[in-house]
């Protein structure tokens, strides 16, 4: 899977544990992936599958109860886990931009948006007050907010939901980051505004040549914008591959189950939407068997006693599963 000569981000065997009163929660288990400059990688899975915790682990944005217990995170060859506090702050502020799900709780209600953008520019780019304000107006224009000079004076509550999300994108792009992490940025928006944000991301990606990690529940969004897809379940990546290949030839039963839940325009309106039976796994122990086996109709003895390793099934396409969809039986590994 490491066929990119110099990946922008290279994550190897990342493990994150939350220490709680009721025991340890193994939220991220041996996660490995990379992303190339200019590549958009979609991360999908049910709630609790480890998507957001993985990305927060990359940036060291974890609560005190959490610990990165293993693995390596390299950004342009630099060891992120080995950075001191100042280097880590610069990494978060300058090299990586983050867009969170709810812009209203991410923006500070007591400061106008101009201050929230220029503060970042002055701190990490060393711009003067006047230059920072000019750049802030350019950023608002870049994300499609009309009359940007005037809107710099406005407060978050004076913007619509879609406009607030555009402000968050402007803040994330302020320091020309090489990597953008978008954590379900369109979930709280209506369909029309969602389409506008997605089109904006496509345009910005072409202009700025950023690597983008797009976390979402929506496989339809991933199909429209991503180059590759990471499918997460139980704190692990159970399948990853190019978007067209993965949608056309899913190799893991969980990926297949997710795709089957997508509504179809050809189905009768009276038909019930498909669901995945059962519940996500408990993460109170590191997995010793396939986490999806209790919900999988293809599970057999090996699945219940041995956690599957990721097996190459095509170019940049692998799956962590002992079952072979081509034969309907165990893989020959």
Q: How are the elements arranged and paired?
A:
Elements: E1 9-20, E2 23-35, E3 40-44, H1 51-59, E4 66-75, E5 78-79, H2 85-95, E6 96-99, H3 103-106, H4 113-124, H5 129-142, H6 148-151, H7 161-173, E7 179-183, H8 191-208, E8 211-216, H9 219-225, E9 228-233, E10 236-242, H10 243-248, H11 253-260, H12 301-305, E11 311-314, E12 317-319, E13 323-324, E14 329-330
Parallel strand pairs: 3-8, 3-9, 6-7, 7-8
Antiparallel strand pairs: 1-2, 1-4, 4-5, 9-10, 10-12, 11-12, 13-14
Helix pairs in contact: 4-5, 5-7
Plain-language structure description:
This protein has 333 residues and is of the alpha/beta class. The chain has a single domain (9-110, 155-264, 273-330), classed as 3-Layer(aba) Sandwich (Rossmann fold). It contains twelve helices and 14 strands. The chain is globular and about 65 Å long. 39% of the residues are buried. The model has no long low-confidence stretch (mean pLDDT 90). Belongs to the ABC transporter superfamily. InterPro entries: AAA+_ATPase, ABC_Ni/Peptide_Import, ABC_transporter-like_ATP-bd, ABC_transporter-like_CS, Oligopep_ABC_C, P-loop_NTPase. GO terms for molecular function: ATP binding; ATP hydrolysis activity.
Strand residues, percent: 15-25%
SSE order, one letter for each helix or strand? EEEHEEHEHHHHHEHEHEEHHHEEEE
Structural class computed from helices and strand pairing: alpha/beta
Query: How many domains, as an integer?
Result: 1
- Share of helical residues: 25-40%
Number of strands: 14
Low-confidence stretches: none
The top-level CATH class is Alpha Beta
- Spatial gap, N to C terminus: 18 Å
């Amino acid at each position: 899977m490491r066929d990119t000569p110099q990946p922008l981000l290279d994550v190897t065997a990342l493990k994150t544990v939350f220490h709680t009163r009721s025991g340890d929660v193994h939220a991220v288990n041996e996660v490995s992936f990379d992303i190339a400059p200019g590549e958009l990688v979609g991360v999908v899975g049910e709630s609790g599958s480890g998507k957001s915790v993985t990305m927060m682990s990359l940036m060291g944005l974890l609560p005190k109860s959490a610990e990165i217990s293993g693995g390596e995170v390299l950004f342009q060859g630099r060891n992120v886990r080995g950075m001191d506090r100042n280097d880590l702050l610069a990494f978060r502020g300058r090299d990586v931009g983050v867009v969170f799900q709810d812009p209203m709780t991410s923006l500070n209600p007591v400061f106008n948006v101009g201050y929230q953008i220029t503060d970042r520019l002055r701190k990490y780019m060393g711009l003067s007050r006047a230059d920072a304000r000019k750049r802030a107006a350019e950023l608002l224009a870049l994300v499609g907010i009309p009359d940007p000079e005037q809107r710099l004076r406005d407060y978050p509550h004076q913007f619509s939901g879609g406009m607030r999300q555009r402000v968050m994108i402007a803040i994330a792009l302020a320091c020309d980051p090489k990597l953008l992490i978008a954590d379900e940025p369109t979930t709280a928006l209506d369909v029309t505004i969602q389409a506008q944000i997605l089109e904006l991301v496509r345009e910005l990606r072409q202009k700025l040549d950023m690597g983008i990690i797009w976390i979402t529940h929506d496989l339809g969004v991933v199909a429209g914008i991503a180059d590759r897809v990471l499918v997460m379940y139980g704190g692990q990546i159970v399948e990853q591959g190019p978007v067209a290949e993965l949608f056309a030839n899913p190799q893991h039963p969980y990926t297949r189950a997710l795709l089957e839940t997508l509504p179809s325009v050809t189905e009768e309106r009276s038909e019930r939407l498909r669901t995945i039976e059962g519940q996500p796994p408990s993460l109170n122990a590191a997995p010793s068997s396939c986490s999806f086996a209790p919900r999988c109709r293809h599970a057999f003895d090996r699945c219940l006693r041995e956690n599957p390793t990721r097996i190459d099934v095509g170019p940049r396409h692998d799956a962590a599963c002992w079952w072979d969809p081509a034969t309907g039986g165990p893989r020959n590994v």
